[in-house]
Each structure stands twice: as structure tokens, then as C-alpha cells.
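#lab-general

N.A. 3:47 PM
ok so I finally got the sequence cleaned up, no stray characters, all 252 residues accounted for. can someone with queue access submit it? mine expired

B.Y. 3:52 PM
send it over

N.A. 3:53 PM
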Amino acid sequence: MSKKIAAFLLVLLTPVMLAAHEVTLFPVVHDGTIHLVARYGDPGEYEQIARIKLLTLTASSPDQHMYSLFDSVKASTDELSLQVLLPLADKSANGTWILASTYDNGFFVHKADGSALATTLANYPQARDSAHYFKFSKSLVKIGDSAKGYNLALGHLLELIPHSNPFDPSSHELLLEVRYIGKPLAGAEVEVGDDHTANRTASLKTDSAGLVRVSLDHDGWYRLAVTHRSRSAYPTLFQDDDLTASLTFQRY
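B.Y. 4:20 PM
back already:
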């Protein structure tokens, strides 16, 4: 057996260690087109995102018209990310566009040593932990002078919703709500990072109204993320729904 084949088999047989990674969206506007890149994992440690696990990718205009971008998604040249182009011509462009995705990362059980297998309790009932991993993502893009539409709630099962304008250059704080099944989620820990790191500061915990105040202390990208677990409706297959939600935007 060649060394290359032996190494390949070792990868196949080695249990996967599952990390609670988010899917994050990074849009850039150039020549009247939004260039959107979807990434999986933490900044600096991105892993390959699976096109087959992407369920939806949409763009909501400032006047709340929704466009599906799903059929236009392609793999990026780095073979890690997904990308799509959204021309803004002939659309109501001025204001905040919301790019959003849902991503089903599948079912995993965890063995006693912490390693993960991509199956359910039906096939591995002795697992110490099991979950269905689902990821919701949003990104805000301001076009023109208006920020209209930045606070639109999309109705994701887990969602981060700004209650103040993240693009206001005179503001040094963002009031942010974490919402689960349409209701404020108290006690949720929100990561505050950027395009280089998942955590610039210590995580923030939402108050009884599901709110946190995020310091707007730099120009560039903001990458906010939250994880929430709830009991599964199908306990014979998996114990929990493991949900993540992310929100990105860029300040100048």
C-alpha cells in the first residue's frame, strides 16, 4: 500500500472533532454589484463550506423585496468558500441590503472521548451527546446615504437584529437583540469579532429583554455570533437542536 493511500485511509477512519463554527457572509460592493462570499468556521481557520448543505441564500432590498441568490452560488477560487454576485441595477438600491443564508450542517453524535460521528442515536445509541446543527447568517450592506432597512427581522429560528443604526458614524454603540423563535432570548452569549478573529473582546450576555450593547470602536468589519441549544422534538434521533446565528457589517 502506498503512503498516499495509507494517509487517505487514516483521514477517513479518524473520528471528526466537531467545532461550533458559524457560517458568516462578507459582502463587498464594487461597480454597482454586491460581491458576496460565504465562509464556514472562524477567521484565520476557515474550513471548506459544503454547497450541498446550503438551503437558502437571499437578498432583501431596503424596500423589503426579497431575491433568491441560491441558483447563482458558485465555489470560490480558494475552494473553501462560496460566492455570488448581485447586480444592483434596476432595483431599489439605496438603503440597507440584507444578505442571508440558512445552512444545515447535519446530525452528529459525540463519543466518550469527545470525537464526533456524522450519524444519529438510532445508529449510535451509546453517545454521550447528540445534536442537529443548523446555522443562520445575515450581513448588512449600506448603499447610498440612507441606512433604511437595517433593523428588518427575517424570522430565522435564531436571529441577531440591530435596534440602532450600525452605520451611523456618530454612534459608538450598537443595541443588538438576540431573538429565538421570534422572542427575545435572555442570557445568550454574543461573540464580538471581525474578519480576522472570532473574539476581539470578552463575550457579551443578553439581558432579560434579549439585548446587548456592542461597542463600535473601530472601522472595518464586525462579526457577531451566538449559539443556542434547545431540546429536540425527536429525542430518539438526537438530543438537541444546536443553532448558531451570525451578523456581519462593515463601518467606514
